[in-house]
């Protein structure tokens, strides 16, 4: 990866060694995120929440590890009704109760937001997909529709790649160095778009968010946890489900998506041919999710 120079130069865009992108750059500050609220939950953990849209049905969106509301909002643009986003414990302005944490704890966070908002449908991304899996195992009839985007874990812990990536991100945040955070985040951006204006805008937003809000150290243990002790617990899940995976994604092995779809009684599986779906097939992904939920 070419070396990022932080902060961006006054003329706009990243200052990098070697030939740079030829597209126009923007050095303008990132746009502010919409205002959120912090709500108390029955299990005593305060969670940050954002509401968009109006009316029924209500869909709750659960983000991935180290990500947040901003990263799940693009999935909701075509979804009818009210959309409820939140930050799991240890993310954003949500509380960080004493650890260690498990997927049972994350499922409580998700279930609490769904209950408080009256959500009947859910979308889970990576870590959020694991929490959603746990909710359906414990409460088979809780949701009518469930979308699992890039599930990362079922009944076996995540591999060493996930643990190493999270350790690097937490260490960068702890250092307080924006360039170190940028280096840790940039590996999530496909190489083809990493040095484009869109890639740089995303990177700046993530560095500002993580540098300002941070992540709880207790999250470091989650890659060693499993969503379920036994996938057979999903046999009673009543929700219509859509499971979405991607070939070549080291953090979200396509085998997990296939195993999850096979364990759910009513599930459709779609696998994209390459990773980085939010960058390479965002329009198709949004249309696929909205069509499933709006049906």
From TrEMBL:
AB hydrolase-1 domain sequence ranges: 60-149
GO MF entries: catalytic activity
Protein name: AB hydrolase-1 domain-containing protein
Protein origin, superkingdom: Bacteria
PANTHER family tied to this protein: AB HYDROLASE-1 DOMAIN-CONTAINING PROTEIN (PTHR43433:SF5), HYDROLASE, ALPHA/BETA FOLD FAMILY PROTEIN (PTHR43433)
SUPFAM superfamilies (UniProt xref): alpha/beta-Hydrolases (SSF53474)
Organism, as annotated: Pilimelia terevasa
Pfam families reported for this sequence: Abhydrolase_1 (PF00561)
Biased composition range(s): Pro residues: 1-12
Positions of region (Disordered): 1-37
